[in-house]
Amino acid sequence: MDCRILATCVLIWASSAWAGAWDAGSFDNDDALDWVWELSESDDLSVVEDALQSAAVASDYLEAPTANMAIAAAEVVAALTGSPRPELPAEVTNWIKAHPLAVTDDLVRTARKAIENIKNVESSELAQLWTESEEMAEVWHADLGDLLQRLE
After folding, report:
1. Exposure winner among 3, 47, 63, 80, fewest CB in 10 A?
2. Phi-psi region of 123 (alpha: psi -120 to 50; beta: other; left: phi over 0)
3. CA 49 to the chain's CA centroid
4. Judging by beta carbons within 10 Å of its beta carbon (0-12, 13-18, 19+), is residue 152 exposed, middle or buried?
5. 22 beta partners
6. Which residue in 6, 2, 34 sits closest to 20, CA to CA?
7. pTM reported for the whole predicted model
């Protein structure tokens, strides 16, 4: 193989390996996808509870990674209560099928509180980041609104 072709292939591969996922969907970011891996390694709701608690009780400033993981956890709660988003990652769908766990009303309330905190532009880094793009902010807010409805 020509060295120039090989070098080009390596550069393309390396640049794609360093590119992060970032979009408005609940699982369209690296933080949520990393959290899904944690979920797949668990046998109970502790990973879900931890992610939601971190965002629900945030008192000062809610960092974007914490918010992204809490959104993914809230999606798991919605799915376990019978209201999944249509495009759940396969890993999440498989985990839910393997772990048909009961969700308490307290956990649903915690999920709703976490999402409300995440939407607060005054104290949420993620909300602040999404407001920088008016078009994408609408998509993001609509996605969270849909999630809140599915958590009712």
Report:
1. 3
2. alpha
3. 14
4. exposed
5. 29
6. 34
7. 0.85
The terminus-to-terminus CA distance of the chain in angstroms comes to: 59
Domains of the chain, residue spans: 21-150
The model's pLDDT over 34-91, given as tens digits with 9 standing for 90+, comes to 999 999 999 999 999 999 999 999 778 999 999 999 999 999 999 999 999 998 999 9
Contact 15, 6 (CB under 8 A): no
Give residues with Cβ within 8 angstroms of 94, minimum separation 6. Answer: 40
What does the alpha-carbon distance between residue 8 and residue 59 come to, in Å, rounded to a whole number? 48
Task: In whole angstroms, give the CA distance from residue 102 to residue 81.
Answer: 8
